[in-house]
Amino acid sequence: xxxxxSIELIDLWNIMYRSxxxxxxDLITCVREIGQDELRDWAMKHIERFWIPLMSEGLSFxxxxxxxxxxxxxxxxxxxxxxxxLMLAKGNNCGSKRDALLWLADECAEIRETVxxxxxxxxxxDDTSRTFSGRETHELGSxxxxxxxxxxx
Length: 153
What we know:
The protein is mainly alpha-helical and 153 residues long. It contains 7 helices and 2 strands. The two termini are 32 Å apart.
């Protein structure tokens, strides 16, 4: 199989982008060029097939009054991945998950403070001194699900 068939589209784009950015070389002979429209379509499908079910399931299990504490690393992973999909779905290039978090903070005033905190903590996601409560994650999840549904075709 070719590289294009065995590596997910976003990962192919990352290979191309990062090789140019980090090493100043173009891997066009190994990996085909991936356009913004193709990335946007991929993100829309990924949102529908993965992110909306994930957030819906999480909210159905979650409880806004739960005493459970969720590690920062899990909240960062979810928020950054989701932000990246939203960014791609809206037709914007996304160099990193941290950049996507900063973009989401600019886009969504109601969760700006929390998302900014996640972006600041991105470099050290295993910091055990900070956790999110069930209520906090439920509130974030509700906003995320609404944002995801807004970009659905």
